[in-house]
Specification:
- The chain has 7 helices and 8 strands; from the N terminus they run αααβαβαββαββαββ.
- Strands 1, 2, 3, 4, 5, 6, 7 and 8 form an 8-stranded mixed beta sheet that branches.
- Strand 7 and strand 8 form a beta hairpin.
- Helix 1 packs parallel to helix 5.
- The chain is globular and about 45 Å long.
- About 3% of the residues have low confidence.
Length: 241
């Protein structure tokens, strides 16, 4: 059987997350949508989730907590690549405060609708959700202080372009902090794109792609195993000042 095309993979991923948004609206969490043990709101401290809208928590499908290591400061502008129902955008907006701003970027209309509803319910006014692909960020050069992402870059078929875009929109000295799935070996025998297995790359390749995109001070720290040959990791890097 021929492997799926890039367009087919994008559509599979879009349909999966559209379904997850629908399930969250219906009151189900990520487990009911097919999420595995690596994913979900249990990866966040309970006190951080206490006042969030239920729809943001129910549709959380991340593999770690990038907010904990993003070093967000009051007044920062932050961009979440693949923001889903908006849990990390909402948490970022709290940290950057009213003088900062949190952008969320997602390609799935159903998730964007849910995320905007969650922002309204949270009363967050320093948030903006954008429709688009993480390979082509609709923001100008040097416009954000921090780029975050939570188990999304592994879903892209062109990760190098994603990382180049992240470097482009960061200001000099800007920070990247993402959670992602990394593979122990170069080839993971899987067609599970929706579950973040098929698109996973090794930590060495991740580091090389980040450095090729212009990042420095790359740190890749394993968090927990998510499946055979797969590990959740926190990945940090900086754009040179």
């Amino acid at each position: 059987m021929n492997p799926p095309s890039a367009d087919a993979i994008v559509e599979r991923v879009r349909r999966y997350y559209a379904g997850l948004a629908g399930r969250a609206r219906a009151g189900a969490g990520v487990e009911a949508a097919g999420g595995g043990g690596c994913c979900g709101p249990t990866l966040y401290p309970a006190e951080e989730l206490r006042d969030l809208p239920r729809g943001a928590v129910a549709a959380s499908a991340g593999c770690a907590n990038p907010i904990a290591v993003a070093d967000l400061r009051a007044g920062d502008v932050v961009l979440d690549l693949g923001s889903g129902a908006g849990i990390d955008v909402l948490l970022s907006a709290r940290r950057v405060g009213p003088t900062g701003k949190a952008f969320g970027l997602d390609m799935t209309d159903e998730m964007l609708e849910l995320a905007r509803e969650n922002a309204r319910r949270a009363g967050a006014h320093n948030i903006e959700f954008l429709r688009g692909r993480i390979e082509d960020v609709p923001l100008p050069d040097g416009s954000v202080d921090a780029v975050i992402s939570n188990c999304v870059i592994n879903l892209s078929t062109d990760k190098r372009r994603v990382l180049r875009e992240a470097a482009r929109v960061l200001r000099p000295g800007g920070r990247l902090a993402v959670a992602d799935i990394v593979a122990d070996h170069d080839e993971v025998p899987s067609d599970d794109w929706e579950g973040c297995a098929a698109g996973a790359i090794t930590a060495d390749r991740y580091r090389a792609d980040l450095e090729a995109a212009g990042f420095r001070d790359v740190e890749i720290e394993a968090s927990h195993a998510t499946g055979p040959g797969l590990t959740s990791a926190i990945i940090r890097a900086a754009k040179p000042a």
